[in-house]
Design brief:
single chain; mainly alpha; 6 helices
Length: about 130
């Protein structure tokens, strides 16, 4: 069942990873979109870093809990800033989707990653060194 947990981490992370790469290739239009919501354009750089770095860390299972809580908070923040027009059905669905994704990351935060992760490998290595 550990492979299912890995696949879940990949599924949850993929949306942010792809969004981060998309922002790189649509840099100017993303800045315009952000600024249309009164979000300063210079925040695109930290957004790209968050959307690329932390999903990769979750996928490989390194610093999983920290990465999961950061992405959970990020998803909630995005929902509140960009998807708050509840009269628009698509925006409401995007708002709820972001909260569902945040919930998935919260579960990862609580339980961490299992055997198929760098965190697990490093813990085993550390335990082996302690027992020598």
């Amino acid at each position: 069942m550990h492979i299912v947990e890995l696949v879940g981490r990949i599924f949850l992370s993929a949306i942010f990873l792809l969004a981060g790469v998309g922002k790189i290739f649509n840099y100017e239009s993303t800045i315009e979109y952000m600024e249309s919501f009164n979000v300063p354009g210079y925040l695109i750089t930290p957004a790209i870093i968050i959307e690329i770095l932390f999903p990769i860390l979750i996928i490989i299972g390194y610093r999983t809990k920290l990465s999961a809580i950061i992405l959970s908070l990020f998803a909630i923040l995005l929902a509140i800033i960009f998807h708050n027009d509840f009269s628009n059905q698509m925006q409401l669905m995007s708002f709820l989707k972001n909260f569902a994704i945040a919930g998935g990351f919260m579960i990862i935060f609580v339980y961490g990653s299992n055997k198929i992760s760098l965190d697990h490998f490093l813990k085993l290595k550390q335990d082996t060194i302690k027992n020598l």
